[in-house]
Design brief:
Length: about 240
């Protein structure tokens, strides 16, 4: 899977550039962590989707470290993770002066209300042209077509998806195939920025232990993801190193 390494601020500039360009086809941008790669290892369809994506940024510290180690002979740049919540806020900051048109998809109705309140407090001139909380199931064809129509009618330039992996990655690729917009899958960014879930402190993030913090915060929901996902990710890294 191609992982695009660059400084976080450069990632935000690239997303902004895609959102403001005249695109023949939409651009799907994914934030990849160990769990994303573990899922792609066992799901050929997801693996193909990510290989063909416009950009995959390393959202997890483990992905950054694995990338450096696997390509150590090529002297890769010492870039850091492109953290979903930070990318989300950075693009909002960069897009505010040019009135970039944002569309939000994901979270519960209350999370969306809180998220928009927080964003407007922080970026008073930000332009949010739409926000919707889709049902927690696979949408029907009619619902998909209606959503595409709403985004098109809102004249959005960038669509943010907070639907969870891998659903958000599949939706990002599909929406990008339907609309000439930038579509960014940002995972739990909606929950963190809205204040509905606790966010790990910077030192925990820098140490690569954010997964442990999140596991302690939501053990019942996340234990299987981290127990099996992390093990499969490590196996992938070792297998690539042997090859």
């Amino acid at each position: 899977m191609p992982i695009h390494t660059c400084p976080p601020v450069e990632a935000a500039r690239q997303v902004l550039s895609l959102a403001t360009s005249r695109l023949d086809r939409g651009a799907d941008i994914h934030l990849c962590n160990a769990y994303t790669i573990a899922l792609a290892d066992r799901d050929p369809g997801l693996a193909t989707l990510l290989k063909e994506a416009t950009a995959n940024f390393p959202d997890g510290k483990s992905v950054v470290w694995a990338n450096r180690w696997l390509h150590r002979r090529q002297s890769p740049p010492k870039t850091d993770r492109v953290y979903g919540p930070d990318l989300f806020l950075d693009v909002f900051a960069l897009g505010e002066p040019i009135e970039l048109r944002h569309y939000l998809v994901g979270g519960t109705p209350q999370v969306l209300v809180d998220l928009q309140d927080r964003l407007r407090e922080r970026f008073p001139s930000a332009t949010i042209v739409g926000a919707e909380s889709p049902p927690f199931r696979t949408p029907t064809d009619n619902e998909r077509r209606a959503q595409v129509a709403r985004i098109r009618d809102a004249d959005a330039q960038i669509v943010w998806l907070g639907l969870g992996t891998p659903k958000q990655d599949r939706e990002a690729a599909w929406l990008a195939s339907q609309l000439p917009v930038a579509v960014v899958a940002v995972g739990a960014a909606f929950d963190f920025v809205s204040g509905n879930k606790p966010q790990a402190s910077p030192w925990i993030q820098d140490s690569g232990l954010e997964w442990l913090f999140r596991l302690c915060s939501e053990p019942r929901r996340l234990w299987r993801r981290y127990l099996f996902g992390n093990a499969r990710f490590l196996r992938c890294v070792v297998a690539q190193a042997i090859r």
